[in-house]
């Protein structure tokens, strides 16, 4: 059973997330709170596997809460809820311990996929979020092109193809269709290239692809 905490200052949003989680037999909602400070305190007191955090909350926002959770409870996986217009915050959250990013208007099943994926130690990033973030980080202090190209040279030809498509914000299913591979095979390639590049999730890989001039 995956034990989930919801932190959002909008009661209606919490109710909607709660209803979605309630449709899954393998997920249990253990707490719902209205701000990041309550989220951190609850995690200190109760066993939580996955925390679903809104980026914008009073007292302690989602970014700060993710940093604290990463410090005090590194086993807790964080899924961040965001909206278009908060792309810069998503980029910041990459280094704050968040493993998943969802738009607030995502389909209900996407939330369930995200919770399960991060609980299994994977990153889950909505393809729309990936594409949006990659598109706005052209001059955000990422490694210079020469360094990015040097890193990409560690990869095999097929891994480079997968990386380029990650840079376009494609999902594993889309990449599989494009390269005539199964989703499971794509997942293996993604895991392998992340390990070779020393990256933790597919958004970082997508940004590297953009820096290397591969995701035009």
Automatic annotation (TrEMBL):
Stretches assigned to the Response regulatory domain: 3-119
Modified residue annotations for 4-aspartylphosphate: 54
Keywords: DNA-binding, Phosphoprotein, Transcription, Transcription regulation
UniProt GO BP: phosphorelay signal transduction system; regulation of DNA-templated transcription
Presence of the UniProt keyword Transcription regulation in the record: yes
Annotated ranges, domain HTH luxR-type: 148-213
UniProt cross-references to InterPro entries, sorted A to Z: CheY-like_superfamily, NreC/VraR/RcsB-like_REC, Sig_transdc_resp-reg_C-effctor, Sig_transdc_resp-reg_receiver, Tscrpt_reg_LuxR_C, WalR-like
Pfam families: GerE, Response_reg
Gene3D superfamilies according to UniProt: 3.40.50.2300
Any GO MF annotation of the entry: DNA binding
Top-level taxon of the source organism: Bacteria
Protein name in the entry: Response regulator transcription factor
Organism, as annotated: Lentzea tibetensis
């Amino acid at each position: 059973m995956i034990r989930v905490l919801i932190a959002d200052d909008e009661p209606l949003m919490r109710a909607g997330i709660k209803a979605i989680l309630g449709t899954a037999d393998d997920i249990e909602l253990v707490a719902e709170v209205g701000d990041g400070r309550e989220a951190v305190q609850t995690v200190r007191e109760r066993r939580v596997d996955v925390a679903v955090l809104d980026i914008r909350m009073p007292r302690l926002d989602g970014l700060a809460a993710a940093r604290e959770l990463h410090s005090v409870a590194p086993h807790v996986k964080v899924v961040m809820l965001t909206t278009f217009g908060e792309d810069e915050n998503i980029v910041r959250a990459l280094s704050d311990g968040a493993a998943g990013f969802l738009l607030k208007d995502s389909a209900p099943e996407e939330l369930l996929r995200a919770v399960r994926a991060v609980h299994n130690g994977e990153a889950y990033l909505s393809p729309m979020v990936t594409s949006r973030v990659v598109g706005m980080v052209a001059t955000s202090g990422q490694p210079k092109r020469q360094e990015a190209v040097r890193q990409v040279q560690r990869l095999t030809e097929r891994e480079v193809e997968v990386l380029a498509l990650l840079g376009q914000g494609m999902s594993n299913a889309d990449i599989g269709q494009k390269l005539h591979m199964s989703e499971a095979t794509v997942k293996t390639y993604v895991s392998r290239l992340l390990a070779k590049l020393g990256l933790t999730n597919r958004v970082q890989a997508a940004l590297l692809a953009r820096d290397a001039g591969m995701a035009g």
